[in-house]
Amino acid sequence: MRGLAVGTVTAVAAVGAILLVRRASLRWGATDDELRMMLPGDDQLPHPDLTATRGISIGATPSEVWPWLAQLGQNRGGFYSYDWLESAGGVEIRNVDSIRPDLQIRTVGEDVNLAPEVALSVVELEEERHLVLRGAVAADGTDIGAPYDFTWAFVLQPRHDGSTRLVVRERYVYLTDWAAALVEPIEMVSFLMTERMLRGIRDRAERAARQASVPSQPDR
After folding, report:
1. Which of 51, 94, 157, 166 would you call most buried, defined as having the most Cβ atoms within 10 angstroms of its Cβ?
2. Which parts of 60-119 fold into alpha helices (H)?
3. Are 97 and 137 in contact (CB under 8 A)?
4. Could you count the other beta carbons within 10 Å of the beta carbon of residue 197?
5. Is the backbone peptide bond immediately before 139 cis, with ω within 30 degrees of 0?
6. Looking at the predicted structure, is the pLDDT value of residue 6 above 50?
7. Is residue 74 domain-resident?
8. Beta strands 118-126; 111-115: pairing state
9. How does pLDDT run across 95-150, given as a tens digit for each residue?
10. Which residues lie across from 118 on neighbouring strands?
């Protein structure tokens, strides 16, 4: 009887810990106000089954952060995340450390690949303000039959001190009864990659901003 009681307490504690980790992962870095606020892209999927909102402060202006956002994608500048985790999925992703004009997203309708054969579509774009992706579809534009619809929004919010808040929101709508069983584990992997991506964008933008602020030395 005592063993059953201990087992029950252990199971309840384990479930509680999982729920706490899940809740923290769905709002990593985000403030209470950011969780509540409407963001660009929310009206694409107004009644989501799962939402994750995450954020980070960046010591650079939105105009300095934007070019790093505008080259996200397996077919562009990478996702600035964990190379080993990206490679584990068999996806060749190069995470660049410089701004490349030839890799920049410029218009609605362009593709942002998650993998060579899987692309998200740019559905909203306002330079230096927000980028909203939706998908996924095959790289040739055909439906791959995913059991969920999905939006991924990147929003830049200027601050009075010249820094920027980058808020990222994922919204999922389940299209089948079993979609949650697929999305929930995907979301935990997404959390690991997103928090690293946010730090990767921050570090690159801040480093570039520091370099740009150093006065050039006159030729002697």
Report:
1. 166
2. 62-69, 83-88
3. no
4. 23
5. no
6. no
7. yes
8. antiparallel
9. 899 999 999 999 999 999 988 888 899 999 999 999 999 986 665 666 667 899 99
10. 115, 138
Residue type, 55: G
Domains of the chain: total: 1
Which residues span the domain enclosing 154? 48-212
- Helices 62-69, 179-213: inter-axial angle, 10-degree rounding: 130
Distance CA 72, CA 115 (A): 12
Q: What is the pTM assigned to this prediction?
A: 0.84
| Domain CATH code at residue 133 | 3.30.530.20
Longest CA–CA separation in the chain, Å: 86
C-alpha distance from residue 138 to each of 142, 143, 201 (Å): 5, 6, 27
Q: Residue 73 falls within a domain, yes or no?
A: yes
Instruction: Show the tokens assigned to 15.
Output: 């479930």
**Alpha-carbon distance values, 27 to 5, 46, 159, 169, 181 (Å):** 34, 19, 20, 9, 20
Amino acid at 174: Y
Report the amino acid identity of residue 173: V
> Looking at the domain assignment, is residue 42 inside a domain?
no
Helical (H) or strand (E) element with 166? strand 164-174
CA distances from 177 to 146, 157, 174 (A): 12, 37, 7
* Token couple for 155: 């929003």
